[in-house]
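Per your request, structure below.
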């Protein structure tokens, strides 16, 4: 044991149980940090950075060293490993702290901590008094809390050490203006095999891979990476026939169950794990990894704003982390349940959470710290920040709510419940929603159902922060839920469909309530409309304080009139609506005219008379704008029934002088003048009616075309020269007409 190791591990047996690659780098790490504030350490899986670097940093002073770990299991195991090498119990020099567990004491100087715990601690203590160095381990995972922690720490005087196995160190080194220290490669040989594509269930693929390992003489334990607890249970049943010790490892297990999964066993063991075992820890005895290539990644529901886990293919960096579990203590082997081509098509690394997560909780924390801007390693997208601020403003979330370990919606729910006298019920609902509990379609029933262990822990933690007993009933509980989800109000459309206040529709089977809160909605293409999975009933009067009254004009096709529709709206949802004839105004007139122009103008005037009037005006050279006249006629009116006066509205004032509608004949008869576009006007009547009229009638300077009719009203002559007709044609025509119609008078000189 060298002098440095002796100082770091004064109680350890000599020599240390295993020399790790990072050990040779420790003197340089300490030297860099004595002369500079920050350092980036790049070391592959198995190098020992998690357990050897943090205790070495205690040499730099007497202050505390905090190590941020991405997962609870990693924090707990790393603390135990380091404490064991110091030959001390956990909670003395070395401790750990996470959301539901704090194993530390007054002498603790090295504290392994989950990322979210640090950001909540900085709400009360932004400068982290008593802390000298903060280590961000496995930073390549780029969780939102780790990016936030890094930006907040840069504002302080603390030393910052960033460690990772698969990280591109250059951008962080530039960000921190610090050097990079690199450790040598992996300890043992690692053989990676790929598997042809298979349509078999995942658990059968795992069983086949395990059978292959056993047939080839596997020496050691097997670590199987699966997406979630359901897949772990299925795989456990599928490999029962091999007679091996099978243990699950996932986040929903108790700490004791997780410890049993990674502790040495008396016989060969198969650990069925989620990505909880992907980084930071060495699981003793593992020499083989079976990698499904899948993980459930946290995303934020666009409906609830709450995190949920969706199935995704892992990145190449995550696959490398998983493979590294097999060669930490001996030569290892990896079977990937996917092809090499599939591997090379995957992204190099996962997208940082700061670019894909909902940011309202982070923005609330910054508001609580009164921080307007930060120097980010990678700035969050402006639209995401704007959306987060809009949500916080809508919820009216106060900075005090940031101390609750909940997303802002649920913090508002718990806070509002306490204000309304239902703290216990509000904490129940916040707990079940925060852990993704499902099983009942109604939130009140869900809160009273059987809970998972994680839900129970969240509830107990909330009750420590929000004590007291319920003094009110369901109405106050549901109003608290409404305060947390004010943008998720819906109204029943029919038994299987609801209308959403945000716009659009969703499916909700057997909907019995007129108004409800659509708390959780699932969108899948194969389902068509989104499907509502969890609701809460509400009374419409609860919406009145936030509703607005809006009036709009609307065309009633059946009544053929413009109506004023007055609606009480909550966002885009109609709570109540009334209709009445629209009052006279410019908008009413415009809409009435628009609808009138869309219909047949014959509705408002005789089509023949209208055409004739337009032709008369054209003959007289008087322009007529029918649309303008119709618009003018619509002024002060709201229905088609009031538009009967269209002809009077468009009649030019001198039309009867310039283009008379009728002409008088000598016998006293007044005949209609016909006007046609591009043609002279014409009249028609029996020939006898023109007796006594020598010259052709004129309108202005235009002779009228005269249609002379026989007594049977059939034309006998059409002329514009009536005088010439009498002189040249009438004598012959007179004899024919007298013979045909002897009872009529046919004078020689008409």
């Amino acid at each position: 044991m060298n002098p440095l190791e002796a100082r770091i591990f004064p109680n350890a047996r000599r020599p240390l149980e295993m020399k790790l690659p990072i050990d040779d780098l420790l003197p340089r790490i300490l030297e860099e940090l004595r002369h500079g504030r920050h350092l980036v350490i790049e070391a592959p899986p198995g190098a020992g950075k998690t357990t050897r670097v943090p205790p070495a940093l205690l040499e730099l002073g007497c202050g505390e060293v905090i190590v941020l770990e991405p997962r609870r299991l990693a924090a707990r195991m790393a603390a135990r490993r380091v404490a064991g090498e110091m030959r001390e119990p956990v909670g003395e020099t070395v401790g750990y702290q996470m959301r539901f567990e704090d194993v530390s004491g007054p002498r603790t100087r090295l504290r392994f901590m989950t990322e979210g715990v640090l950001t909540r601690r900085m709400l009360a203590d932004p400068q982290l008094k008593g802390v000298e160095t903060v280590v961000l381990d496995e930073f390549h995972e780029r969780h939102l809390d780790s990016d936030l922690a890094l930006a907040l720490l840069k504002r302080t005087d603390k030393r910052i050490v960033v460690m990772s196995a698969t990280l591109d160190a250059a951008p962080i080194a530039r960000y921190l203006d610090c050097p990079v220290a690199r450790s040598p490669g992996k300890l043992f040989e690692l053989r990676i095999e790929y598997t042809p594509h298979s349509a078999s269930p995942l658990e059968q693929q795992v069983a086949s891979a395990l059978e292959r390992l056993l047939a080839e003489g596997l020496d050691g334990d097997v670590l199987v990476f699966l997406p979630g607890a359901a897949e772990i249970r299925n795989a456990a049943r599928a490999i029962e026939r091999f007679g091996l010790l099978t243990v699950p490892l996932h986040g929903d297990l108790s700490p004791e169950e997780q410890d049993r999964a990674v502790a040495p066993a008396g016989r060969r063991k198969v650990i069925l794990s989620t990505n909880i075992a992907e980084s930071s820890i060495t699981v003793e005895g593992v020499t083989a990894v079976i990698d499904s290539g899948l993980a459930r990644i946290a995303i934020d529901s666009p409906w609830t704003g709450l995190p949920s886990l969706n199935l995704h293919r892992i990145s190449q960096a995550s696959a490398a982390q998983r493979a590294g579990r097999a060669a930490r203590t001996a030569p290892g082997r990896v079977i990937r349940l996917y092809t090499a081509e599939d591997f090379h098509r995957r992204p190099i690394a996962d997208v940082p959470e700061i670019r894909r997560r909902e940011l309202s909780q982070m923005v609330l924390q910054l508001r609580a710290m009164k921080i307007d801007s930060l120097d980010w390693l990678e700035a969050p997208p402006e639209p995401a920040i704007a959306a987060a601020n809009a949500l916080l403003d809508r919820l009216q979330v106060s900075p005090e709510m940031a101390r609750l370990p909940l997303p802002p919606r649920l913090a508002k729910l718990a806070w509002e419940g306490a204000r309304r006298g239902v703290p216990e019920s509000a904490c129940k609902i916040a707990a079940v929603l925060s852990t993704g509990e499902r099983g009942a379609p109604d939130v009140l029933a869900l809160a009273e159902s059987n809970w998972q262990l994680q839900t129970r822990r969240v509830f107990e933690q909330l009750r420590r922060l929000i004590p007291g007993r319920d003094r009110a009933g369901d109405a106050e509980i549901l109003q608290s839920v409404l305060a947390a989800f004010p943008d998720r109000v819906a109204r029943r459309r029919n038994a299987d469909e609801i209308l959403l206040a945000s716009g659009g529709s969703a499916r909700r089977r057997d909907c019995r309530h007129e108004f409800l809160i659509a708390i959780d909605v699932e969108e899948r293409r194969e389902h068509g409309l989104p499907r509502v999975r969890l609701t809460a009933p509400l009374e419409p009067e609860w919406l009145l304080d936030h509703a607005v009254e809006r009036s709009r004009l609307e065309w009633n096709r059946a009544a053929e009139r413009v109506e004023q529709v007055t609606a009480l709206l909550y966002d885009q949802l109609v709570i109540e609506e009334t209709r009445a004839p629209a009052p006279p105004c410019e908008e009413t007139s415009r809409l009435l005219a628009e609808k009138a122009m869309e219909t047949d103008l014959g509705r408002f005037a005789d089509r023949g008379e209208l055409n004739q009037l337009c032709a008369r005006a054209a003959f007289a050279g008087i322009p007529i704008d029918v649309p303008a006249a119709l618009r003018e006629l619509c002024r002060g009116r709201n229905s088609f029934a009031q538009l009967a006066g269209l002809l009077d509205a468009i009649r030019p004032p001198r039309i009867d002088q310039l283009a008379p509608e009728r002409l008088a004949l000598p016998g006293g008869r007044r005949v209609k003048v016909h006007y046609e576009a591009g043609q002279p006007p014409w009249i028609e009547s029996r020939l006898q009616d023109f007796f006594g009229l020598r010259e052709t009638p004129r309108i202005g300077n235009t002779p009228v075309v005269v249609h002379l009719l026989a007594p049977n009203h059939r034309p006998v002559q059409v002329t514009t020269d009536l005088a010439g007709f009498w002189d040249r044609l009438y004598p012959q025509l007179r004899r024919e007409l007298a013979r045909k119609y002897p009872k009529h008078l046919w004078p020689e000189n008409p």
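The chain has 25 helices and 32 strands.

Regards,
D.
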